[in-house]
Amino acid sequence: MTRRTCSRAAWISVSCTCRSTAASWSWPHSRFVQQPGTCSRKPSSALLRAGTENPKLLQAFGVNIPLMITLTYGFGVALAGIAGVMAAPIMQVNPLMGANLLNIVFAVVVIGGLGSIFGAIFTGLGLGLLEGLTKVFYPEASTVVVFVIMALVLLTRPAGLFGKEN
């Protein structure tokens, strides 16, 4: 890793990473790709999966199911709140914030396969690149391209790209 010298003001600044471009690019993305694999192997994830499959059996083992569900819901709400706080300086904050992305997020989940976190991540990155390139070369079709891809994937693989067919 190559180090660059930064002024004292730049060290205080959040924007100065003082790393090479490759190092600052690879570390966050490797953590982003690694995270779904580590989350699926933790004991808390196993408890959540078991609680959704058979809550009475898990409760017989002494796990407090309502508390576990409440904490999980609270964690999701906290993440949504943090995302709202981070988006507030960039976007106008209103109650319908993000409603324009809801259809695209639905398409990403369906194309990736329901229940597949890796599928959602891979599809989100791929559709984001595809929609961005479509906006550059043919802006009129940028909103339609996601749903055309969704229709094609559902015609060929009804469970999605990474979903498991029953």
User: What is the first-to-last residue Cα distance?
Assistant: 47 Å
Rg, Å, rounded: 21 Å
Structural class: mainly alpha
- Tell me the overall shape: flat
Binned strand content: under 5%
**Helix fraction by DSSP (H/I, runs of at least 4):** 55-70%
SSE string, helices as H and strands as E: HHHHHHHH
Low-confidence stretches: 1-34
Total count of helical runs of at least 4 residues: 8
Mean pLDDT: 77
The biggest beta sheet reads:
none
Give the total of beta strands: 0
Could you describe the 3D structure shown?
The structure is a single chain. With 166 residues, the chain is mostly helical. Helix content is 65%, strand content 0%. It is built from 8 helices and no strands. Helix 6 (102-112) packs across helix 7 (117-137) and helix 6 packs parallel to helix 8 (145-156). The radius of gyration is 21 Å and the shape is flat. It has helices at 8-12, 21-39, 43-53, 55-60, 65-87, 102-112, 117-137, 145-156. The N and C termini lie far apart (47 Å).
What is the structure about, briefly put?
The protein is mainly α and 166 residues long. The protein contains eight helices and no strands.
Task: Provide key terms for this protein.
single chain; 166 residues; mainly alpha; 8 helices; 65% helix; 0% strand
Question: Helices, strands, pairings?
Answer:
Elements: H1 8-12, H2 21-39, H3 43-53, H4 55-60, H5 65-87, H6 102-112, H7 117-137, H8 145-156
Helix pairs in contact: 6-7, 6-8
